[in-house]
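Example 3.
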Amino acid sequence: MGLPVAIIGSGNIGTDLMYKLGRSDQLDLVALIGIDPESDGLARARALGYEAPANGIDWVSENPNAVKLVFDATSAYVHVRHAKVLAELGITAVDLTPAARGPKVIPPVNLMEHLDAPNVNMVTCGGQATTPMVAAVSRVTRVPYAEMVSTVSSKSAGPGTRQNIDEFTRTTSKALEEIGGAEIGKAIIILNPAEPPILMRNTVFCALPEGTDHDAVRESVISMVADVAKYVPGYRLKQEPVIEEGPFNTPGGVVPHRVVVLLEVEGAGDYLPTYAGNLDIMTAAAVRVGEAIATHQEVSA
Amino acid sequence: MTAVATEAPARDFRLIDSTLRDGSHAISHQYEVSQVEAIVRGLDAAGVQVIEVAHGDGLGGSSFNYGFSKVNELELIEAAVNATTNAQIACLLVPGIGTVDDLRRVRDLGVGVARIAVHCTEADITEQHIKIAHDLGMEAVGFLMMSHMNTPEGLLQQARLLESYGADTIYIADSAGAMTTNEVRARVAEIVGGINVPLGVHAHQNLQLAVANSIAAYEEGARNLDGTSAGLGAGAGNCPTEILAAVCEKNGINSGVNPLALMDVAEEITRPLMPRAQVVDRAGLLLGYAGVYGSFLLHAQKAAERYGVSQAEILLELGARKAVGGQEDMIIDVAVELARKHAAMEGTS
C-alpha cells in the first residue's frame, strides 16, 4: 500500500498529474478534486475509478483521514487558503502554484532537505528545468552570475502564467540563487506561437571565473541531466555543453568564460501533448517529491 | 541652424525617437552617459517630442542572452531625463525579460512613457504591465513586435486587447523589417478603423523601405512614427529620422521636427559613434527577406565567427524555425548544430 494522496485542481496540470500518479507504486491516488462537476478532468477521473468530488478543499475537510498528502494544482491565490486548511489537518501539501508558502524544492538538488516540511513548493516549470544545471556548475566552481532563458509554446502557457508573467521571472531567478547556488540569478521567459507547437527549450548560462576546470563543469552538467531524466524522461541536452570565451561583463563581475547549456523537454504526453514539456516537468517533479515524502514517512513511521 | 518656431502649426504626427533604445543594438549596448546626453540635447533642440532610452531589449535586457550594458540603463535614463528640456523620456519593457519593478524604478527617475512590447500574438501577457504603467501615471503604449507574422485581422484583435487593458497608444513594429509597403498599408488601415486610440508604426530598413513604409503608414492613418538618428538600430537599421523629416516636409506633412537640425545630430553626434555603417548588406537584407528578428544580426555574426559557420546560414535557419524576438539563445544552438553537421559531412567525404 502506498501513501494515500489527492489532487486539488482538475485543470491541465491536475489531470496530467492524475495519469502520472496512476503509475506510482509509492503513492495511491484516492481523489481528483475539482470545483466544476462538468470538467474534463473530473470526467476522466471518474472513468478511471477515482473519487471525483466537485466541492474543492471542503472534500478534504470532510474526509480528514482519507489522504496524507495533497497536490495543489489550483492557483497561487487559492493555494494560500488551502495551505492553511491542510496545515490544520496535518496533511502535507505539495504546491504546484507560485504561492510559495513552503520551501522551494528542486528534486535532484535539495529534495532530501525538506522531507519533513508540511508544505513544499514546486517553483516554476523553468525553475525545475534550469536550477539543476546551475547547481551542477556551482558544485564544481563559484558561479557569480547565472541566467536562464525558457521558451515555451504559446499553446502551453495558460491564463495563470499569462496574467502574471512577472511571477515566473521573480520566482525562477530566486531559485537560481537560493537553490542553484548562483550569487546573482536572472530568468527570462519567451512564448513562441509557432505551429506545430515547439518543445519547451531552456538555455542556461553560467559565468565561469578564472581558473575553473571546464571539463569538471561539462561532466557535472551531463551527470545532472541524467539525474533529472530519471524522473522526467523527455529532459535532454540539445547539444553538448559549450564553453565560450569572453570576457563577459556580468553583474557578478567580469569573467573570462561562460558555459552554455542548451536543453529541451519533451512531455510524456499523458494528458497534455508532448510539446508541453514545461507542464510535464512540473507534474513529473511533483510525483518525484511525493514519492520521496512517502518513502520517508514510511521509514520514520 | 534655426530652432523650431514656437508658432509652428500643430504636428501631423508624433515622432518617437529610439536612437537610445533600438540604436543600442547596433553598438552592442555600449552607450556612455556623455553620448546619451549629447544625443538627447540634439534631439530635444530639433523638436523631437519623445525620446526612448533603455537597453536594446528593453528594461532588464542586460544579460548574457542579449549582451550586457556597459553602463546601467538606469544611469543612462537619469542622464537623459536631466538633459532634456521639452522632450519626454520613454522606456520600453518586454514582459518576460523585465518586470513591473523596472517600471516603478524608471517612473521614479522621471520617465513619462512606458512602451510595453510583446510578440504580435501574445498581447494578453501585458495586462498587468499596461495597468501598472497607467497607475504610475505614465502613458502606456502597447507595442506589437514582429507584426509581419500576423494578419491585419489578427493584429486588430491583439490591438483591441491592448486597448482593453488601457493602452493609450498602440504600435505595430516591423521588427524584422520584412514588410512591403502594401503589407504595411493593409495592416494600418485595418487597425486604425477598429480601435479608438492612436496607432503608431515602427519600421526597419532591412528591405530599404523604412521611410516609404512610414509615410504609407501615415497616409493610412498612423499618427505615431518611430525612427532613429542616422537609422542606428537593430538589423539594417531603423527609419532614419532626418530622412523621414525631410521627406515629410517635401510631402507637406508637418513632422514638428527640424530636418536640418536632425541632419546635424546624425552627422555630428550619431555617425561618429557608429562601429559600422548602417547599411543593407547581405545579412541585413536576409533578415527582411527571411523575416528574422533584427536584433539577431550581431549575435549571429559573433556566433558565426565563434563556430566557423556562415552568418547567412544561421539567419536563414532561424527564419525557418520561426524564432521570435528574444530567442537569441537559439543562435548558439543553431551555430553549434551547423558546425557539427559540417564536421560530419567533411568526415564522410
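Residues 244 and 258 of chain A are 5 Å apart (CA to CA). Chain A has ten helices and eleven strands.
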